[in-house]
Amino acid sequence: MTTYPAPGPARTRRPVRVWDIVVSSILLVLLALLAAMMSFFGFFLAMASDSCGARDCSSELIGAGLITAVALPWVILLAAAIVTILLLVFRKLAFWVPLAAAPLVVASWFLGAFIAAAGVPTG
């Protein structure tokens, strides 16, 4: 006679946290607004080339800084949205992802400004 082990407790899924879904959604919308604002400010880095008539500037570095400041906030937003959605699907806390991504979106402008400034010689 074959004996089978006693069945274990049934696996139950974690409950849906409605507050986490609502807060995560609101924070993602706010992150999108922040990304749009920082991307808009990134276009102003084109003014770094204003003094390039009298100096020998690197238009490649200025352009790379501008592209970085304009595009990187959207890349960070996309990554944050994907991670947030995956965490919500697996019913884990997700509200912290847009909060953690917000300083990265702001830092992306500073990174772009640093790169653009490297293309303009001093003195």
Automatic annotation (TrEMBL):
Query: Pfam families this protein is in?
Result: DUF6264
Please list every transmembrane segment annotated in the UniProt record, as residue ranges.
21-46, 66-89, 96-120
Keyword Transmembrane helix applies: yes
The answer on whether this UniProt entry bears the keyword Transmembrane helix reads: yes
Key words, A-Z: Membrane, Transmembrane, Transmembrane helix
Fetch the InterPro entries from UniProt: DUF6264
What name does the UniProt record give this protein? Transmembrane protein
Report the source organism. Answer: Microbacterium gallinarum
